[in-house]
Amino acid sequence: MKIGKITEKDRAMARVCVNCPVCRHARKKQKGPVYMFVRTIERGLCPFCRAYEKVHGSKAHEPFPSTKPGN
Fold it and tell me: Which ranges of the chain does DSSP label H, i.e. alpha helix?
C-alpha cells in the first residue's frame, strides 16, 4: 500500500475500524470465520480497514502491537 499524508479523514475512518465489532473480534481471536472474513475484505472492499492500515501501519486483522506475542 502506498502511504501518503495521513489526513484527519483517514484518522476518523481508522477509528471506525478500531471500534468495529467485526474487526475487533478478528484482532482479538486471530482465527475463525470472522478473522477470515476481515482478511478477505479489508483491502479491497472496506474503506475503514484501508484507512486503519494507512494510519496504524498494520492490517485490520492483526492484533494491536501491545497484544502481539513477545511484547
Answer: 8-19, 21-29, 33-41, 47-56
